[in-house]
């Protein structure tokens, strides 16, 4: 049994001061094992995005411990944190967050550039990742020449390209139409099947149905933690499709 | 993450906003070009002034009567009908004074002495053409060497001519052009204020020194001019040439001693000595100040250009906050972000600086306001160095702000 990819203990996040103080997270504890596919659900304001930002090391918790791959994030300095974001975590945003005026290929290469990977290898890996999300034909298009679904697939490729221990997706289908949503979810299912650990945020039951485990968050606390499929097996919808 | 990648990101960032980058570069370009050009103009004018001074003669002292000398106060003496003489108490400069200065024992540092009389407003005529000569000089042959007036055509006049008071004359280029046009003047007769003189030579063109045309001149033997034009009065000045550049100060001391003795001077002398070397120093000091002033004005425009860079970089950072957030989210370390924005600012200022140097190089090929600018290499290095420094310094603040952003803050920025 390897150590969990994610270990979160009593995570608290507060915004503001005094009367305006908002407690977005009120002591969240969570463990995610390698290969798991977790959907975090909750209404808006339930703290799920805050949780995601902390898991992605984009934000820091007010208190609580957080370990990725056994490394305590709280004790890392800024530089190590950047390296951690680069190597261990892949992040997919609801609003895609591709850099404009850079080709799909350049966007996917970006994490590898900061990771210090050489040009030839970088290109090969980026092309491979783009092929995996089905965009081999559109590597030289800029974000504004791509549809929303295609942009999100580029973003997924960017998150994948460093082969991170953890793939975080913050409402990845929130801005997409049904067809694109299906494409992106299929890619995530495939990734899960190939053993990648995924944590996904959503408020749609349809999306959550793809996950092996569903966590429901209300007012910054976990109220439900339900397993839909075993960690080792394929994701539920994938098995359904195979049948 | 290596430097080449940072450079590529910076270039891409700049090219994304070509117009803005170009205008910012223009600000630095103007600053750098202004610094180099204005310093070059200052240097050019300083050199041309010094050349003009040198053209007046090297290692020479010019002694002229002083109107304020001889003690006492009050206006110029009411001597009445005398020639433009000094005050009655003051003794005029005489030929005897000039002779005394040639004494090897009393003035060993003196190489030659040329007594000079000048006749104002002499009109020279040849055939139908006439010309009012600005400066008609009667002197000895040594004058040509002492005042650096070489003859281009024909010959000088000689000591024989002086002794015999022959009416021969050497003309300046302007006078020749006015009177003869393209005709060869040597051997021709010109009449100067009605007195006929034979032209023996033409002076080499000296060019104008400021407002005065140094070529509007005619030089004749001293007694010839005295006989026919100025009368046998006092001398206008005595030109003394020292034995060398280093000897001018000793020569000045010796001349002072001789003249003080002859004129019985105790307190303030009744003559003035103009030392070419001292004049040159004073003038170069003055032009130096002038150059510094120009450079200061130019430096301000360079500073304004630098503030332009800060401004643009601040706008860029604000505008691209989201991009910074994305870069940080995919694992860009602080140094990489800092490097990228510093590189952008430095590229702007470096490119602007280099273009400014090019413009300045081109600009110094043309005469500006009659002055041929002289490029000062140190000003090029300084302007370029300062422009790059400005990029680093003024780009540093926005770049640091960009690098210090927390990823989530940057991503939430709209």
UniProtKB/TrEMBL annotation, chain A:
Top-rank taxon: Bacteria
Pfam families attached to this UniProt entry: ABC_tran
SMART domains in alphabetical order: AAA
Entry-linked InterPro entries: AAA+_ATPase, ABC_transporter-like_ATP-bd, ABC_transporter-like_CS, ABC_transpr_LolD-like, MacB-like_ATP-bd, P-loop_NTPase
Keyword list, A-Z: ATP-binding, Nucleotide-binding, Transport
CC annotations in GO: membrane protein complex; plasma membrane
RNA-binding found in the keyword field: no
Keyword Nucleotide-binding attributed: yes
Domain ABC transporter: 6-242
GO molecular function list: ATP binding; ATP hydrolysis activity; transmembrane transporter activity
Gene3D superfamilies noted in UniProt: P-loop containing nucleotide triphosphate hydrolases
Protein name: Putative ABC transport system ATP-binding protein
Organism: Nonomuraea pusilla
TrEMBL record, chain B:
Residues of the MacB-like periplasmic core domain: 21-257
InterPro entries the UniProt entry points to: ABC3_permease_C (IPR003838), MacB_PCD (IPR025857), Macrolide_Exporter_MacB (IPR050250)
GO molecular function: transmembrane transporter activity
Its membrane topology: Multi-pass membrane protein
Domain ABC3 transporter permease C-terminal positions: 296-405
Secretion signal span: none
UniProt-listed Pfam families: FtsX (PF02687), MacB_PCD (PF12704)
GO annotations of cellular component type: plasma membrane
Protein name according to UniProt: Putative ABC transport system permease protein
Organism of provenance: Nonomuraea pusilla
């Amino acid at each position: 049994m390897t150590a969990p990819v994610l270990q979160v203990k009593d995570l608290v996040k507060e915004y503001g001061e005094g009367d305006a103080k908002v407690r977005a997270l009120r002591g969240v504890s969570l463990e995610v094992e390698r290969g798991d596919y977790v959907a975090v659900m909750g209404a808006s304001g339930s703290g799920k995005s805050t949780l995601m930002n902390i898991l992605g090391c984009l934000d820091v918790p007010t208190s609580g411990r957080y370990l990725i791959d056994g490394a305590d994030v709280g004790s890392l300095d800024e530089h190590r944190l950047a390296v951690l974001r680069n190597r261990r975590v892949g992040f997919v945003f609801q609003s895609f967050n591709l850099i404009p005026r850079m080709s799909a290929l350049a966007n996917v290469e970006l994490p590898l550039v900061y990771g210090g990977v050489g040009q030839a290898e970088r290109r090969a890996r980026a092309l491979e990742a783009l092929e995996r999300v089905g965009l081999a034909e559109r590597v030289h298009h800029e974000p504004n020449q791509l549809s929303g679904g295609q942009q999100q697939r580029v973003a997924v490729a960017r998150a994948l390209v460093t082969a991170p221990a953890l793939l975080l997706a913050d409402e990845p289908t929130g801005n997409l139409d049904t067809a694109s949503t299906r494409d992106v979810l299929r890619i995530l299912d495939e990734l899960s099947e190939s053993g990648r650990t995924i944590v996904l945020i959503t408020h749609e039951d349809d999306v959550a149905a793809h996950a092996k485990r569903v966590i429901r968050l209300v007012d910054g606390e976990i109220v439900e933690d339900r397993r839909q499929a075993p960690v080792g097996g394929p994701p539920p919808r994938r098995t359904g499709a195979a049948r | 993450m290596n430097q080449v990648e940072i450079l590529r990101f910076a270039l891409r960032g700049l090219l994304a906003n070509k117009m803005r980058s170009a205008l910012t570069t223009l600000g630095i370009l103007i600053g750098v070009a202004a610094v180099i050009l204005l310093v070059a103009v200052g240097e050019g004018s300083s050199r041309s002034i010094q050349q003009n001074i040198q053209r007046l003669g090297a290692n020479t002292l010019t002694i002229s009567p002083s109107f304020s000398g001889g003690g006492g106060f009050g206006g110029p003496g009411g001597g009445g009908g005398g020639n433009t003489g000094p005050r009655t108490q003051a003794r005029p400069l005489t030929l005897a004074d000039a002779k005394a200065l040639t004494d090897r024992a009393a003035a060993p540092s003196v190489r030659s002495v040329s007594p000079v009389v000048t006749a104002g407003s002499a009109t020279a005529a040849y055939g139908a053409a006439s010309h009012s000569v600005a400066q008609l000089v009667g002197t000895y042959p040594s004058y040509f060497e002492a005042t650096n007036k070489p003859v281009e055509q024909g010959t000088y006049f000689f000591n024989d001519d002086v002794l015999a008071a022959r009416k021969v004359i050497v003309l300046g280029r302007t006078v020749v052009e006015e009177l003869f046009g393209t005709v060869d003047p040597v051997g021709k007769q010109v009449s100067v204020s009605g007195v006929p003189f034979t032209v023996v030579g033409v002076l080499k063109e000296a060019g104008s020194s400021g407002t005065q045309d140094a070529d509007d001149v005619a030089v004749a033997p001293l007694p010839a001019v005295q006989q026919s034009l100025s009368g046998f009065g006092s001398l206008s000045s005595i030109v003394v040439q020292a034995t060398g550049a280093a000897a001018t100060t000793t020569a000045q001391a010796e001349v002072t001693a001789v003249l003080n003795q002859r004129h019985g001077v105790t307190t303030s002398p009744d003559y003035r000595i103009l030392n070419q070397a001292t004049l040159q120093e004073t003038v170069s000091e003055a032009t130096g100040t002038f150059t510094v002033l120009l450079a200061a004005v130019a430096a301000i425009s360079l500073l304004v250009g630098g503030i332009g860079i800060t401004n643009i970089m601040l706008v860029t950072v604000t505008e691209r906050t989201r991009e910074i957030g994305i870069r940080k989210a995919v694992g860009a370390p602080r140094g990489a972000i800092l490097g990228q924005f510093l590189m952008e600012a430095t590229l702007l200022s470096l490119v602007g600086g280099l273009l400014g140097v090019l413009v300045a190089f081109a600009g110094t090929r043309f005469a500006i306001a009659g002055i041929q600018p002289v490029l000062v290499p140190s000003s090029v290095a300084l302007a370029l160095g300062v422009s790059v420094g400005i990029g680093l310094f003024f780009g540093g603040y926005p770049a640091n702000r960009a690098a210090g952003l927390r990823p989530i803050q940057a991503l939430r920025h709209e």
